[in-house]
Amino acid sequence: MAEYNALLKKTLKTLLDEKKYPTLKDILVTMNPADIAAVFEDLEEERIPLLFRLLPKELAAECFVEMEPDRQELLIRGFSDLELRDLLGELYVDDAADLVEEMPANVVKRILAQADPQTRREINQILRYPENSAGSIMTTEYVSLRPSMTVAEAISRIRKTGVDKETIYTCYITEDRRLLGFVTVKDLLLTEDDDTPVSAVMDENVISVSTMADQEEVAQMLSRYNFLALPVVDTDGRMVGIVTFDDAMDVLEEETTEDMEIMAAITPSEKPYLRSNAWELFKHRIPWLMLLMVSATFTGMIITGFESALAAQVVLTAFIPMLMDTGGNSGSQSSVTVIRALSLGELAFTDLPAVIWKEIQTAVLCGSALAMLCFVKIMLVDKLLLGSTDITVLTAAVVCFTMAVTVLVAKVIGCTLPMCAKKLGFDPAVMASPFITTIVDALSLLVYFGVAQVLLF
Amino acid sequence: MAEYNALLKKTLKTLLDEKKYPTLKDILVTMNPADIAAVFEDLEEERIPLLFRLLPKELAAECFVEMEPDRQELLIRGFSDLELRDLLGELYVDDAADLVEEMPANVVKRILAQADPQTRREINQILRYPENSAGSIMTTEYVSLRPSMTVAEAISRIRKTGVDKETIYTCYITEDRRLLGFVTVKDLLLTEDDDTPVSAVMDENVISVSTMADQEEVAQMLSRYNFLALPVVDTDGRMVGIVTFDDAMDVLEEETTEDMEIMAAITPSEKPYLRSNAWELFKHRIPWLMLLMVSATFTGMIITGFESALAAQVVLTAFIPMLMDTGGNSGSQSSVTVIRALSLGELAFTDLPAVIWKEIQTAVLCGSALAMLCFVKIMLVDKLLLGSTDITVLTAAVVCFTMAVTVLVAKVIGCTLPMCAKKLGFDPAVMASPFITTIVDALSLLVYFGVAQVLLF
Question: So what's the architecture of B144-250 in CATH?
Answer without folding.
Answer: Roll (3.10)
